[in-house]
Specification:
By secondary structure, this protein is an alpha+beta fold. The protein is 25% helix and 35% strand. Strand 7 and strand 8 form a beta hairpin. The N and C termini lie far apart (61 Å).
Length: 262
């Protein structure tokens, strides 16, 4: 009887202790600052091409003139067609962000910490829905992919350098990827295609590669999707095809602007 009572008491104390435990904290940066840009701040070079410059070597994140829309897409590994709702300023207001993890962090860890940052500073609230959408599938073409082992062990980046002509007009964009995955490339180019791009190449590593995209000024969108498709096929040895598939979509319930000095 005494042993049974003691066991019951121990079990009750264990349950009480379990209920009192705090839930695990979401991963977060050690320090982070978000500074609103002045109204009318231009988009960073290359953003028109569906490219946004994030650098995070050694657990450090620097984002220049970033919209909340672009931050959301990067942090959640989603493409433009994979989110809906939210206030209109998410696409226009820009912020400079500097954040540092406690130590070195992986790509996935940096993105989870950025999710926490967006929830804390922008009061971002959202939920998931499944919707049927057209998607593009990226695969390896007939020729071997023109992808190379990375030379830099830390830097992950995708830079776009506008190439200017004699009349000071952009004649092409030189795209240089450093330690970049094909999934990241798909996420980047999805903005121009207006559709989710699924990486089915079987190539899951990180690579160095480069390509040149020549805008067609006669089109409403100078970087028409057909130019991206042709550029990837001819310069990277990758192909794209369209099909229907269920897609997980983030629905933005609410968000608030970040004030200066936050």
């Amino acid at each position: 009887m005494t042993r049974t009572l003691a066991l019951a008491t121990l079990l009750a104390l264990s349950l009480e202790h379990g209920h009192c435990q705090d839930p695990p904290k979401a991963p977060a940066f050690e320090v982070a600052s978000i500074t609103p840009c002045k109204p009318g701040t231009p988009e960073p070079p290359g953003e028109h091409a569906g490219v946004f410059q994030f650098t995070y070597p050694g657990g450090r994140l620097n984002a220049r003139a970033a919209t909340l829309k672009l931050l959301l897409e990067w942090a959640y590994d989603i493409q433009p067609s994979q989110h809906s709702g939210g206030p209109s300023w998410m696409e226009t207001d820009r912020y400079d962000i500097v954040a540092k993890a406690e130590g070195s962090a992986t790509d996935a860890e940096m993105k989870r910490m950025t999710q926490t940052l967006l929830a804390d500073r922008f009061q971002l609230k959202l939920h998931h829905e499944s919707r049927m959408q057209s998607v593009y599938v990226i695969s390896v073409g007939k020729a071997a992919p023109k992808l190379f082992p990375p030379k830099d062990d830390e830097t992950h980046s995708l830079h776009v350098a506008p190439q200017m002509g004699q009349d000071q007009k952009i004649v092409s964009f030189h795209v240089v990827a450093t330690r970049f995955s094909l999934t990241q490339l798909a996420d980047t180019f999805a903005r121009q295609l207006g559709s989710v791009i699924v990486n089915q190449t079987g190539l899951d590593g990180e690579y160095d590669f480069a390509m040149d995209l020549t805008p067609d000024e006669s089109r409403p969108n100078p970087l028409d999707p057909s130019l991206l498709i042709a550029g990837m096929r001819e310069q990277l040895g990758l192909t794209l095809k369209s099909q229907k598939a269920p897609v997980d979509v983030l629905v933005i319930d609410s968000a608030e602007k970040v004030a200066a000095g936050n």
